[in-house]
Amino acid sequence: MKSVAEIKSGLRVNLKRALSNLDEASRASQSASVIQSLIGSRVWAESGRILFFSPMPDEVNLWPLLQRALSEKEVFLPGYDPDRKVFVPRRLESENSLYTGKFGIREPSPTPDLKEGKPLDLILVPGLGFDRHGHRLGRGRGFYDRLLSENRGLRCGACFDEQIIESIPTEPHDITLDFLVMPGQMVRFSDGRTT
After folding, report:
1. Is residue 98 within 8 Å of residue 75, measured between CB atoms?
2. pLDDT tens per residue, range 140-152
3. Integer Cα distance of 127 and 132 in angstroms
4. What domains sit in the chain, N to C, each tagged with a CATH number?
5. Nearest-5° Cα angle at 41, 40 to 44
6. How far apart are CA 100 and CA 98, in angstroms?
7. Does the pLDDT of residue 115 top 60, yes or no?
8. Neighbouring C-beta atoms of residue 41, cutoff 10 Å
9. Rounded distance, CA 111 to CA 91, Å?
């Protein structure tokens, strides 16, 4: 019988293959639909402090929404803390303060990390795969699980249709999501309803 780690490894291979088959037009169209689903939700309307993610080439591109959010919300992006070897939320004041950081990902210039004070309202979460039970499959290094475990806020995965799979096995360190936004809909996992 395969271990959870072996099953996850196989799922990653399959999901990377599916994502590599997505053309640019489909990525752009689905990303725009995800943005519309998100901004049409009550969660977005009620969130003032939002942690975005810098999309990798095979992830939903929420960057156009980040640009809009900078004028309406408090925007944060993960920044790498080399001392602790973790990503931490860092406030983003403008796109001019971005640089290419760890793993070639855009992150804010080193500023004071989010430590004390108000928690985040909404944490937008990337991944390779998602299921309809709130489980997420990351890239296998655990960076996002650590970030999610150390920061409060509603956790919302963002994905293309091709990233939805039947079931993702979990381990004790895996963090369950509260919502999943995909092209045309947003699902709340507490009751499975579309929001």
Report:
1. no
2. 778 888 999 999 9
3. 14
4. 4-188 (3.40.50.10420)
5. 105
6. 7
7. no
8. 20
9. 7
